[in-house]
Amino acid sequence: MEHRVEVIWTCAPCEVGGRDADEGGDDPRCWNCDGPVVVVGRPAVLQTVPESDAA
């Protein structure tokens, strides 16, 4: 099963916001000005452990 974590951000100069897939390493950029943004949320992802792996 694939899990997708999104980063929720806002760009103060442009007064816009967005959501990006968190692909690790790179910080999200504003889609309007391509500038740095302020991350306002990283939703938690719950993972289930298969019964055979539970100890």
Automatic annotation (TrEMBL):
List the protein's name.
Uncharacterized protein
The domain of life is Bacteria
